[in-house]
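Hi support team,

I've been running sequence recovery on a batch of backbones for a student project. Most finish fine, but this one hangs at about 90% for roughly twenty minutes before it completes. I'm not sure whether the input is malformed or the queue is just slow. I've pasted the structure tokens below so you can try to reproduce it. Let me know if you need the job ID as well.

Thanks,
M.K.
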């Protein structure tokens, strides 16, 4: 199996789409506003940004759950600089830069290449 889609729920679809588009460089591939927008994740997967239903709980503050996306050194440096500029930088390791999206969700971009055994 491999990733088909990742769905993020939000009170502000436009704001969350702007973040993932402007900070991580994701491209819109489907616009069904006000309900959802899909952003490309490589060739075969999408990030679905969906409106959160009334009464649906928001994310827990400070959660360490993480969605990490593969990048190269140039992409990691670009995201790091933009996260610092926006004040959403949340740390880094030698391979991964962490940031928080507008909902407080922890996001990473990583150059670490996974080895398969």
């Amino acid at each position: 199996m491999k990733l088909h889609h990742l769905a993020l729920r939000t009170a502000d679809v436009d704001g969350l789409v702007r973040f993932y588009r402007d900070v991580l460089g994701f491209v819109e591939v489907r616009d069904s506003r006000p309900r959802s927008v899909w952003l490309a994740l490589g060739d075969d997967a999408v990030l679905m940004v969906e409106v959160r239903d009334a009464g649906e709980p928001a994310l827990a503050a400070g959660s360490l759950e993480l969605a990490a996306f593969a990048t190269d050194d140039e992409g990691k440096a670009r995201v790091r600089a933009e996260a610092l500029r926006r004040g959403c930088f949340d740390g880094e390791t030698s391979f991964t830069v962490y940031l928080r999206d507008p909902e407080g969700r922890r996001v990473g971009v990583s150059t670490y290449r996974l080895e398969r055994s």
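--
Follow-up from support: It reproduced on our side and the slowdown came from queue contention, not your input. The radius of gyration is 14 Å. No action needed from you.
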